[in-house]
Specification:
Length: about 325
């Protein structure tokens, strides 16, 4: 967006906001947006919380992989902020944690909109939540279906079930120095059930491990945001599959990248031009980019010095010269 477009959009937004500067509220079936003057920014209650069993695998034929969301999500910057609302569907519940996919959407089209270039001093909080709940947020890639991964950690599973239908998610942001916006949403739908997610699994592994995501200290050959074969996977971030654009992708908008030989796989924004492209051939995943020919996705044993920083990881995922018959290079899908 060039400077002239930005100035025009900002002018439209300020004009729209002036209509709400008296504390007016836009109320809809799908969410609430409040515009207010900066002196009312303390209206968020002080008690609101702010914050930035393994199952046996059921394998699916690799010839019919599950559908993986594509990275061509249409996102626009709205001309009138008053026409947007917040929605936060429940993605999954893992033990005591409820993960939500929150995004701002156009009230008429229900399409995702991008307010990031316009809002400052943004924050997330909750209403109608127990005092013990903890909120964590992660801004997702622009191509993701959702803008923010909001994780609510409850003191117990019972608290999660008790408050799930009454809790409210609050998003706050400011335009300029004087106009604040507060969006609210309930939690939509029920989270995915255990066993309904699918990820990649290597055929050669006698131990039950699944392709998943893990975080570690960045070091040579081991990325901070890595992909490996884990003894336990439980999150939507661990749901890896092959998209129609030939990327190994999860639903949050992250894709696999293997920087070079002998480096473990990492995950990056799917818009990254270095995201690894693969082609399925006789159960093998041949790598189409990266500058080295005849490379396939494979696994390797984790080194002893890396086990402390990644205790759930049994094997790394990386690349090697394609070798038909090498079971380390054969892949299938498994549910978790």
């Amino acid at each position: 967006m060039n400077r002239m477009q930005h100035t025009r959009l900002l002018s439209l937004l300020i004009l729209g906001a002036m209509a709400y500067a008296c504390g007016g509220q836009v109320q809809g079936l799908k969410g609430t947006m409040v515009a207010e003057s900066s002196k009312a920014s303390s209206d968020v209650k002080s008690d609101d919380r702010k914050g930035s069993g393994k199952t046996a695998p059921a394998t699916a034929p690799f010839e019919k992989p599950p559908v993986v969301s594509e990275e061509n999500v249409s996102v626009t910057v709205p001309g009138n902020i008053a026409g947007t609302y917040l929605r936060c569907p429940a993605l999954e519940s893992v033990d005591r944690v409820l993960n939500l996919g929150c995004t701002l959407a156009d009230r008429e089209t229900n399409q995702k909109v991008n307010l990031a270039p316009l809002l400052t001093n943004t924050s997330w909080s909750t209403k109608n939540a127990p005092s013990s709940v903890r909120i964590r947020t992660e801004t997702l890639p622009l191509n993701s279906e959702w803008s923010e991964l909001v994780s609510l950690e409850f003191a117990s599973r019972e608290d999660l079930e008790s408050y799930r239908n009454s809790i409210r998610i609050v998003f706050y942001g400011r335009i300029g120095e004087t106009i604040n916006y507060t969006f609210e949403s309930g939690i939509e739908a029920a989270p995915a059930s255990t066993g309904s997610r699918v990820t990649l699994r290597n055929i050669n592994l006698v131990d039950q491990t699944y392709m998943g995501s893990f975080e570690t200290q960045q070091k040579p050959g081991l990325n901070e945001h890595s992909i490996g074969m884990l003894t336990k996977v439980s999150s939507i971030k661990d749901q890896w599959g092959i998209s129609s654009s030939k990327k190994i992708r999860n639903p949050l908008g992250y894709c696999m990248r293997i920087e070079s030989l002998f480096h473990s796989a990492s995950y990056v924004d799917c818009a990254d031009e270095k995201a690894t492209l693969v082609e399925l051939s006789s159960g093998m995943l041949r790598i189409l980019n990266g500058g080295v020919e005849n490379q396939c996705l494979t696994i390797s044993n984790i080194l002893d010095q890396d086990k402390a920083s990644a205790p759930l990881v049994k094997h790394f995922v990386n690349s090697a010269t394609c070798s038909p018959g090498d079971m380390n290079q054969m892949w299938k899908y498994a549910s978790f």
